[in-house]
Amino acid sequence: MGKDLKYPKMSRTNRKRRNGGEKEGNSYSQTVSSTVRGRASERDCVWFPKKNQNQIIMMRKWWRTKCALGQILRLRGRGFRSDAALKAISIAGEERVKNLALYNYPSLSGSLSALFAHLFHSHLNLPYLLLPFSSVEPLRVDDLCIEGLERVYLLDFLGPKRFADALSRGSSCEVIGFDHRKSVLGQITSDHPDKVTFYVDLEKSSSTAAYEYFSSKLVDLNSPDGNVASLLNPEVEDRMKMVLKYIEDMDLRRWSLPDINAFRIGLREWRSKLNCITNPYIYKQLLEINSVDLIAKGNSDISSRQSAANKFLDKVFRVRLGRGFYGECLGVRADGNSYLSDEIGKQLSARSAAAGLRPIGAVIYMQRNNLKMCLRSTDSATDTSEIAKAYGGGGSASSSSFIIRMDEYNQWLSVNASRWSKGMMHHFEKY
Hints:
By secondary structure, the chain is of the alpha/beta class. The protein folds into three domains: 12-76, no CATH class; 83-298, inorganic pyrophosphatase (n-terminal core) (Alpha-Beta Complex), CATH 3.90.1640; 311-428, Diaminopimelate Epimerase, Chain A, domain 1. The chain has helices spanning 12-19, 27-36, 50-76, 83-94, 108-123, 141-144, 163-171, 206-221, 234-251, 260-266, 282-287, 291-310, 341-354, 385-390, 406-412, 417-424; strands at residues 99-104, 128-133, 151-155, 174-179, 196-200, 317-320, 328-333, 361-367, 370-376, 394-395, 399-403. Strand 8 (361-367) and strand 9 form a beta hairpin. Helix 5 runs parallel beside helix 8 (206-221) and helix 10 packs across helix 12. The two termini are 34 Å apart. Residues 1-36 are annotated as: Disordered.
């Protein structure tokens, strides 16, 4: 993985002096902490076994990425604990706004849930405040404890551990959360405050649950003029329900609906529109969302990307996975075109199988001065992640990746790769 980090060995005497007499084993967390902060000096470093070096490198990369992203968001004024967000909360406190809704950003399920909350409060002329919530520069409990707050909705997330409890106790308000992820079940315990309610359904997406909740509440409360109101007019409702079905198919990892992949790809351009602080037209735009248009856009993008990916398929070579331990497959270099790794990898997977190799495609490219290898497979019985995990990476059975050292990568190339590539190209014409 890149260049190995080799730390000079420290004598037992110096280790004890630095650690105040602590045992040698306790120095691990201290040194990692110092290294992660980027201030480790030679005097403070100890030698780590090779098996731990990958962990240290990953921790350093994670820390640099998180700090860089936080700094970018602050510089752009788009951090989710931004001046604009805090000002909106302050004004809501001054005006004694009773209803606050936080939605998971940049999740489309969270944004649609926010749309339904917006429509619900608008129908009933209830003052409310809607804000995006992200794990990057998140809003704090203290920020949200405003005077007069009676109800908080957590849409498509439950927040960090005990977040809802602290918010309820700090503001003496009701907290209602919606989520569909299995990972949040551990947060649901019997000792929650009475005013905290979670709607977690593993068979229903958060946006569908929020739509049903606010629609039902609106019918129960009726509109001020006595007429039974509907959250959406009939024309929009039919279109929105179809969008919700596709969102649910993705959220629950079913991937069973027709053209679901095209729908997913068609959604990509929406990610930049889902922040209600920077985009005041978000609700109007979400009311116009159409699954037919998204699928058409996705199919168009797939066709364009496939055409671009095809240009690399005449440069394939043979890759000895794990120096041959995991078998052999076809690979290609795609420097500067990492966004095509999925399309290229899947085609290489089919070609590898046709050539009698493992049904895996390897796409290799440089990423921030590191050599990265992406593995793809179209065969349900093949697990690419076992290879990726063996080299410090990860992913799923059909899609995984990892960073590989150049000297190690060279050992994966067949000595006759170039000659074999030219000799087999005619064999692939029909695939």
